[in-house]
Amino acid sequence: MRRISSRAQKWLKSFHIVFASLWLGGATLLSIKQFMISAESDGELCGILGTMVFVDWFIIVPGAIGALLTGLIYSLWTRWGWFEHRWITVKWAICVFGVVFGTYPLGPWLEGMLHLASEQGLAALSDPEYQHDQLMLIIFGTFQWATITFAIFLSALKPWKRRGKGASGTPSRCDSPRQ
Question: What are the boundaries of each domain within the chain?
Fold first, then answer.
């Protein structure tokens, strides 16, 4: 496969960092906001939840998709590959899990809370469905934030050696399977 130039790779890295920052920043905001929902009126509750849905759709979703696509380009057209390094494999798992999990349960839970709040106002805070969705967002939204943060640290630290390669870059019989 053809490789991209060094200059193009720098641009790719810059965009990857921007998208990852959007995703992590939005996830941080929503995780913190979950612990601070204390609306005093129907409008405030809808405003808080509406803002959270906005952050989800216009910051987190573009950040996650952008990180996924730039990661895909990295894997296809640079020396980093898909499974060449264990830390990249772990990042792929986190990214794919994050996109899928964010799309299906997390997003619908948040939008369900907004829907209930717009129908019931502050009474939604006592609704069992609202409370369930809120608890799931607190638990799993915080978990997703932690995994995204971990993926960013993996990118910076690159903690594990190459898969199955010796010092010369070729497989060796003496390589430990625990690299």
Answer: 6-157
